[in-house]
Input
Amino acid sequence: MVKTFKTKRDEIGQRIGELKAQRDTTKGEARQVIRDELAELYIWLDETKLELDCLYPKKAELLEMLRQTNQNTRELRTTIRDECGRGGRMWYKRKQLKAV
Output
């Protein structure tokens, strides 16, 4: 989702650059149309930046949850290996071989 908003932000920025180049070579009413479109694009750009600002903390939170889940899984695997006898050690060994 963050990637989608970054792509959208980049596309809007590119379009703004194109319109600025056109605005500099255009005169009269066409120039005002370009200015109006630029104003609208700046609004969209600001909204996109706000959305990204809201998504970054959520992304960090989800990443931390993933890391904690991975840590819990590692601990569970070693507990099975250490406390479930021969069967646990064999299971752990098979899991390690699959991971490679």
Observations:
- The CA atoms of residues 12 and 44 lie 8 Å apart.
- The two ends are 31 Å apart (CA to CA).
- Residues 2-99 form one domain.
- Helices lie at 2-25, 29-83, 85-99.
